[in-house]
């Protein structure tokens, strides 16, 4: 058997490779071992899906059950991404106050891309100059006390509307858009029924667990059909918003000299978009994104809270009687309740707080994204981790609330109880609007709307619960008789 001698080039290559391997080995031997991260307690994830098999159709309830096993700070894996969940007031304070800046970002999702004009709205935009500028504009120009006060007459007029959903929609339309665009008849870009479906679809798609967001390499399949629905929803809203902006642009073009005065929030946004001194320009999509935030955030949320409040009052007639007694004592029967009356109705305010405690519109706050490695509660939270705050669990914590599963407004008015707890983001036991820099900027308006609408519903009508049991018994009996004799 003959062996060929290696060439000088091949031999040199082998020697260099061996030397390189030797050097790398020596360096590794002398390097200090990397610090092992201490992650929060977690259930064992499955391949590909992580812990998604543990999440049911109501994610906040599934996470509530998991937190009873793994504690107030736990780590889950949703597909390809780690997720940390806070389920106590102390943990929420750590994320939303102590380390707010580290957890201020938003994860990018298909909903943010397709339904909010490529993250052009305030709620979905990532942390950076655009978001910081938008937050300042909301606070200084759009939701300041002076502007809300100047539009008091709009809210006072619309509280007389016949339908709960239309009260909120009409108030938001007149404050934000300048008039009621959602009406029956010619000249309207949409009908109330169609617009209600659009809002419902928008809320659903922005809250749904989209597989493509969690397992990116499966995103192109759109296995749930959500992306297709997002695109259709975005097209419908864009048609509506283009109609609104075109009318506003036409009115601005007809102005005489510099005498044009903004009369609604879209006017303000269009003026801001023309401001050359803005740090980041607001394009037309930005105006539409902010406008959609106004409409979506102010319409359905208030109506749902009032519905929950009335449901609880009807289920608890003794609470309804106390609310009525307070109204009769403070306000004449012949008068509607005004916004300035609310401070004289502490029990009604307690009813609203208790409703928001038991039935937060967003049981899981909008997800946040960790921007840097953080040590929290003795555990390591790594950059890129998604963060969920389960306010539904926090508001049912037996260490904080007496009889947490019962509807008891008294705990917000009794000294020494929850009377000092408010909903404005400073008390982490109750976070219906969130907290920190990312909390809902429309909180003041939303709270006014819920309080005034609920007060007038209670004050102006005599309410009682229909006895469905008797009706159901009669229906069942009728079915049995029909089956037996026909």
UniProtKB/TrEMBL annotation:
Record-listed heme binding positions: 440
TM stretches of this protein: 12-29, 467-485
Keyword Ligase (UniProt): no
PANTHER family registered for this protein in UniProt: CYTOCHROME P450 84A1, CYTOCHROME P450 98A9
Protein's name in the database: Flavonoid 3'-monooxygenase
Coiled coil (residue ranges): none
Highest rank taxon of the organism: Eukaryota
Cofactor(s) listed: heme
Molecular-function GO term, any one: iron ion binding
Keywords, ordered alphabetically: Heme, Iron, Membrane, Metal-binding, Monooxygenase, Oxidoreductase, Transmembrane, Transmembrane helix
Recorded family membership: Belongs to the cytochrome P450 family.
PROSITE patterns: CYTOCHROME_P450
Any single Pfam family the record assigns to this protein: p450
């Amino acid at each position: 058997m003959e062996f060929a001698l290696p060439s000088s080039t091949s031999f040199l290559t082998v020697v260099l490779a061996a030397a390189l391997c030797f050097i790398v080995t020596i360096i590794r031997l002398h390097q200090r071992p990397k610090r092992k991260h201490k992650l929060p307690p977690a259930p064992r994830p499955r391949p590909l899906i992580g812990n998604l098999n543990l999440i049911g159709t109501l994610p906040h309830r599934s996470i509530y059950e998991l937190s009873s096993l793994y504690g107030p700070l736990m780590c889950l894996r949703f597909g390809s991404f780690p997720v940390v969940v806070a389920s106590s007031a102390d943990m929420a304070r750590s994320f939303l106050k102590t380390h707010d800046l580290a957890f201020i970002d938003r994860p990018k999702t298909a909903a943010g891309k397709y339904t909010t004009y490529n993250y052009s709205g305030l709620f979905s935009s990532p942390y950076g100059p655009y978001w910081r500028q938008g937050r300042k504009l909301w606070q200084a120009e759009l939701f300041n006390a002076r502007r809300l006060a100047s539009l008091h007459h709009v809210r006072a007029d619309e509280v007389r509307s016949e339908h709960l959903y239309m009260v909120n929609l009409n108030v938001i339309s007149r404050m934000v858009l300048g008039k009621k665009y959602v009406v029956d008849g010619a000249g309207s870009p949409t009908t109330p029924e169609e617009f209600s479906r659009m809002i419902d679809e928008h809320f659903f798609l922005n809250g749904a667990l989209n597989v493509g967001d969690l397992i990116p390499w499966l995103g192109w399949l759109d296995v749930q059909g959500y992306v297709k629905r997002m695109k259709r929803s975005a097209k419908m809203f864009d048609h509506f918003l283009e109609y609104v902006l075109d009318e506003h642009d036409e009115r601005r073009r007809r102005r005489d000299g510099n005498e044009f005065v903004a009369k609604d929030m879209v006017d303000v946004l269009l003026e801001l978009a023309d401001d050359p001194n803005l740090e980041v320009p607001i394009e037309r999509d930005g105006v539409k994104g902010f406008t959609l935030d106004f409409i979506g955030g102010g319409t359905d949320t208030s109506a749902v809270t009032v519905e929950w409040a009335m449901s609880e009052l009807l289920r608890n007639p003794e609470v309804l009687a106390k609310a009525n007694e307070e109204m009769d004592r403070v306000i004449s029967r012949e008068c509607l309740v005004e916004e300035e009356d609310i401070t004289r109705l502490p029990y009604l305010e307690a009813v609203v707080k208790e409703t928001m405690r038991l039935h937060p519109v967003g049981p899981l706050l909008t997800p946040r994204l960790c921007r840097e490695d953080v040590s929290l509660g003795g555990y390591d939270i790594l950059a890129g981790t998604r963060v969920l705050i389960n306010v539904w669990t926090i508001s049912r914590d037996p260490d904080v609330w007496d009889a947490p599963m019962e509807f008891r407004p008294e705990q917000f008015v009794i000294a020494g109880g929850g009377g000092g707890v408010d909903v404005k983001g400073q008390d982490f036991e109750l976070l219906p609007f969130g907290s920190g820099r990312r909390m809902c900027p429309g909180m003041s308006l939303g709270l006014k709307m819920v309080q005034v609408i609920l007060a007038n519903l209670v004050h102006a009508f005599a309410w009682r619960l229909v006895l469905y049991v008797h009706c159901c018994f009669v229906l069942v009996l009728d079915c049995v008789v029909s089956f037996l004799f026909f």
